[in-house]
Amino acid sequence: MSDKLKIVLIDDQCLCRRGLSELLANCYDFDVVGTTDNITELRTLLKIKLDLLIIDLRMKPLDGISLLNQLRHEGYMTPAIMLTMSDSEVDLKNAIRAGVRGYLLKDMAPDEVVDAIRRVAAGELVVAPAMTVKMIEMLRDEQPDQEKKSSLKLLTEREREILQLLSRGESNKAIALTLKISYDTVKQHVRHILNKLNLSSRVKAAVLFTKEQETHHNDDTLQN
């Protein structure tokens, strides 16, 4: 199919490349056009019009962030996801600064990885659920405009409940289990939340919710 997402995997571990390649090959909308562990082969693959790079963070001799920075310096602007075992806030911050669209952990469930890749391809900034709280901490200093803060009032009780769980770093699957609703229902609610808030990222929605909660807490403290 011509509308498949063309993806290249970069990892210095053959087993990881093969495993992820097989996972994505089973998806109707992905086309893994190549896998590699070196920048020479990667430059050849980049001659193809690619939709996404999935890069391992801990590689030798060139780590994933250095590789991405070098590619950007050379003019290659293909969107990238960093895939790693590292849950370090420093690594997350460096990856975001390098311009990644996603920061995923290798211990995520396969269906969560697939869902995250699709969301990145759709233009969303995506981090692994376990990294959500750290991402919120990174974005705390950003001031949301009043219009977006007011938009939180448009959310239903169920949507606020889901947004609260998102702000705690819960995955869609975990939220479905907690609320005893289906996985697809959670995904639909998240889409509605982002549309109402006019945001492209569930992380930013979680930041907005967290700041609202902090404001209420501070107001209650002052009143007491």
Number of domains: 2
Number of helices: 11
* Terminal CA distance: 62 Å
User: What is the CA-based Rg, rounded?
Assistant: 19 Å
Please write the string of helix (H) and strand (E) elements: EHEHEHEHEHEHHHHHH
Do you know the CATH topology of the largest domain? Rossmann fold
Regions with little confidence, pLDDT below 50 for 5+ residues: none
Helix content: 40-55%
Strand order of the largest sheet: 2-1-3-4-5-6
Helix and strand composition category: alpha/beta
Q: What top-tier CATH class of the largest domain fits best?
A: Alpha Beta
Mean pLDDT level? 88
The CATH architecture of the largest domain would be 3-Layer(aba) Sandwich
Strand-helix topology:
Elements: E1 5-10, H1 14-25, E2 30-36, H2 39-45, E3 52-56, H3 64-73, E4 80-84, H4 89-97, E5 102-105, H5 110-121, E6 126-127, H6 132-139, H7 146-151, H8 157-167, H9 172-179, H10 183-197, H11 202-223
Parallel strand pairs: 1-2, 1-3, 3-4, 4-5, 5-6
